[in-house]
Amino acid sequence: MFDQVRGDMGAEAEANTPLAGVPAQQATPVQPTVAARASTSGDGINVTIAESISARLSREGAIESFEVKGDLQLRISDPSLTQVKLNLAMGDTKGAQLNAHPKVDKAAFKSGNTVQLTDATKGFPSNNSIQVVRWRLAAKPDDVADPPIRFTVWTSESSTGTYSITVEYELTGSDPLKDVVVAIPYSTSEPVVSSFDAVYEVSGDSIDWSIGDVDDSNPSGSFEFEAEAGGEDDFFPIGVRFTKSQPWVDIDVSSVELLNEGQDVGFAKEVRSVADNYMIV
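Structure (tokenized):
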């Protein structure tokens, strides 16, 4: 059959026929086209801006103390991208004290709002989260004209020893808040809630009022309940938890630049601003 087919197709078929026992030559695989740097999608460089807000408010809504601690962390997972410069966008820092890492160029940080190593021939460590900038704000009560959120608590006692508690909130800052929860302690009988439109949960020793998001569409509200107590101090301190999408101290990273090439590269950014000790006393 082979001879017959070869005779029908001529010399071309014989020339293209593989030799017995000799493997056919494999075609050269086509290499996929890849980007020059994978970091254009932000995979190689990660920036985290994290801060915690602590405050003490009086029952009348006055600020008694206000403190913010934060830092800027850099993590580089691509070893070829360690020689970089972070260009910062500095807004209203509200008088916070900012400090750069000892190995960061202090002159460039203060005059140009940039973060780079003093020795430009070296790079940041790879696969390690580095705290390159940190800040602290311990504001005087009179200096905080617009705290993130303000609360006022009203208490009244009946002749039977039952207390009526009303907690009001008002968004006084410019940034919206997320996942706002107010935890009110109690020590005797389980509270009777009269705000039936509120979302709350009663646990063994506190009643947690879940406000949710507080923004321009929900800038104020109140929560009312009654409970027995030995005194109004049994309902304090009231704890408040929330998160912000923008840091209180306005610090951001606008771009990341490769020092040896003078070009911007992509980076991933995460912002965490959390009230972890926001108390009404």
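Confidence is low (pLDDT under 50) at residues 11-40. Residues 243 and 274 are 4 Å apart (CA to CA).
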